Amino acid sequence: MALVYEPKIVGFLCNWCSYAGADLAGTSRITYPANLRITRVPCSGRVDPLFVVKAFQLGVDGVLIAGCHPGDCHYTEGNYHTRRRFALLHPFLEYLGIEKERFRLEWVSASEGKRFSELVSDFTENLKRLGTRET
Amino acid sequence: MINEIRNKVKELLETKRVECVIGYERATDNLTARPVFIYEPSQVDRLIFDETCVHNLSKYLLNRKDKPTGIVTKPCDSRGINLLLNESQLHRENLFIIGVVCSGVKKVRFNRIEDSLPTKCQYCPQHTPPLYDFLIGEPVTETSPRNYADVIKIEEMTSKERKMFWSGHFDRCIRCYGCRQACVGCYCYECFVDELDPLWVGIRIAPDENWVWNIGRAFHLSARCIACNECERVCPVNIPLMLINRKLEKDTLRLFEFEPGVNAEVIPPFATFKKEENLGVSE
What we know:
The complex is a heterodimer. Chain A contains 4 helices and 4 strands; from the N terminus they run E-H-E-H-E-H-E-H. By secondary structure, chain A is of the alpha/beta class. The longest helix of chain A has 18 residues, at 78-95. The relative contact order of chain A is 0.25. Chain B starts with a helix and ends in a 27-residue tail after the last helix. Chain B contains 9 helices and 8 strands. In chain B, the strands form 2 sheets. In chain B, strands 1, 2, 3, 4, 5 and 8 form a 6-stranded mixed sheet that branches. A two-stranded antiparallel sheet of chain B has the order 6-7. At the A-B interface, helix 2, helix 3 and strand 4 of A face helix 5, helix 7 and helix 9 of B.
């Protein structure tokens, strides 16, 4: 049997919106690829750029960061800081030779279970097309 | 020029405006320069300033936060002082800055002076220090346009080529952390690489650990690096670190219109935000 390449994705989901969104996808019985490994963080602002760097070092194929929509942050402004940080990290990772498709920052609210599932499917599809990451 | 500096330093020490002046003197090889701390007015003749004065002396100010200190600075070093002031690491009233209008220094490596200009001078945008109390030389008002030709060259490579390019360089890294020690922006009491839990960078000798160190270092200096070239100068294995720093500098300018060290009063981009901004992620 031929082995099918399954990319490994690390997801940092904010507790208040995106994690609840993923939970909603679950309770609504919407399926999404099992390639995503979820880490719950209190806020997308908790995600240190080093988390992403470290994840890539340890060989993951993609990193997803999901937080509340701008303006909806539980801590008022955490996601604005996230946006600035990763706006700079994203082109930097690309500069170092990590394809830009491998990193995604998305806003998912607690009511967007469907969108969350579509997002993960889309991300997984893209990574499958991209193939394994040579390290 | 050097007499102007010496006279000023003498005056500062005699009037007790400062306790000590940090400057450059001729090293024992009679060729290169080395940092010197002048405490006595009689010692001012040791001071020199020429194209061999490559060091960024502003790092030494961190140890003298509460002591009145004078310093001889080039434009890039003076940006370093602005960075430290912005981050509340220094008291402005304790400083006396002798700024020197600089047209570039020589490339100095291991007691050899090369004829080429170091990266920082090739792309230097500003020849007058942005911060000084006393200026030596005629201020140059026009600023050179920003040039990122070297960065654009890397950006035009394919993803795979870039990966090969950087792994070729990072594989050589011996993690001596000289780049950190020389850097004016690296003053954390505990650096992320020295932390044991979490272990950001493992102790094993492996290319991917070097990779994390070099990226982590560069990103901690994003929107903070004042392009003084010290990291690249001290690197024993010639990793082109300025090529990484300058990429971040370019993007900081593009995204946030911010230049580190130019003005100590401007809030740095990661300490603030705008509610409505399109930065090219998650849109």
